[in-house]
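Bug report

Summary: structure tokens for Lysosomal Pro-X carboxypeptidase differ between web form and batch submission.
Environment: batch mode, default settings.
Steps: 1) Submit the sequence below via batch. 2) Compare with the web form result.

Sequence submitted:
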Amino acid sequence: MARLATIIQPLWLPCLLLLFFATTAFAIPPRRKIPVLSVHAADPKAKNSATNNVPPAVLSEEYQVFYYNQTLDHFNLQPQSYATFPQRYVVSFKHWRGANASAPILVYMGAESTLTVSGTGGFFPDTAARFDALQVYIEHRFYGESVPFVKQEQALENATLRGYFNSAQALEDYAEIIMYIKKVLSAEKSPVIVVGGSYGGMLAAWFRLKYPHVALGALASSAPILYFDSIIPPEGYFTVMTKDFKETSENCYKIINESWSEIDRVAAAKDGLSILSKKFKTCQPLNSTRDLKEYLVDLYSTAAQYDKPLHRIDMVCKGIDSAPKGADILEKIFAGVVSYYGNASCYIHHDQESFFSAETMRGWSWQVCSDLVISMGIDDNATMFQPDPWNLTAFVDYCNYRYGVPPRPHWITTYFGGYDIKEVLRRFGSNIIFSNGLYDPYSSGGVLEDISDSILAVKTREGSHCMDISVPRKDDPEWLVLQRNIEMEIISGWLLKYYQDLLEEDAS
């Protein structure tokens, strides 16, 4: 396996985001924005926050870039299925004790963005150092440099080519690359631990279930594997988000709750949209209340999902709670926007998605319209949002309109499971850690209770999305340090058992 390049300036991109599709009636079928499952979100006050994810050049010679000739279609024997494309992966040998020692291999499963090595911060290298492990980072097909044949935008416009873009193909990609690396390094006896966050966390859990002969265990951080096929109530995400805001500030929660009807009231008046545009200093005139509401829901959901360590909800609520005396409801809401994003000449760009790259948004839009059909909505008034029920028919109509094919809402639960998960996994699953922070709205779709002695839930009350695999900080709270330590102890147990079994096999 020859070294092809060295990372000089690794890309840091979010691993899972949160933007929602409104159901306002208009000419084409309404769309519903499904939260992108990214590990990180950019600092809202940083300039160009959608792209402020390239860190300093600090990885130097440690990380080596390789490209594997990946099979386009793993599940079909037609001639075109045998076509290959270069899939990028990154390796660090720094801490590896070698194949002769059967030292472990840690594999980070890339998700819906360009491959990010620094996105795992010190967590992955620190873990590798602890276990004398090889580090492998694999880019998800159709992202970054791993798009078959053409640029991503062109690939997603090609109805045939984008058909090869799904989670099952991605898992087989990972299996091929892992087995190839083990063969080339003569590391057949090196145990593999797969790690992922958010969508990548789902992939890690599913990989352990589908490929137990390849991976000894999996750490699935903030992986909402139950958010499919209406296994859980569709309003779970919004219920947790509402609780987060209410616990931060009762007044803030009430103002947000009242703001939606106030937006509707103002919009219904003469020149109402123009009035709203001025109140919120929009970069272009509002075409509908949908533009404004989507923007605000995006803000609140991102603040909740990625609350720590910046305390994003507090940013919003401090603005709302400290608005000038006599400010009306919408002026208070706008004060929260300014507090969150900082002073700007204008807010709300129609053609700009905050926090996340166009690449991520394009790819995620297709993924949730194909196999990752996340059933999310608001069915009652127990949240701080207006009712917006999950409507599968409307979602199918939108995806049909956008891509010419309907989504497959039952694919995930058929292929990976989900119903009766406790009983099923107790019977045949093993060696999976499901970690969650209960402040994360997506924790509502996560596994929050131990299923068996080796399928374990490690959760923290204050934790946010993928916080346990984020960059360690000197001021990390004790509960976060403890969560990481518990996860490492569990993995240590898996490896100890593996090596004991290996010694017995060699002795026999």
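Above is the batch result. After comparison, the two runs are identical; trailing whitespace caused the diff. The radius of gyration is 23 Å. The first strand starts at residue 5 and ends at 6.
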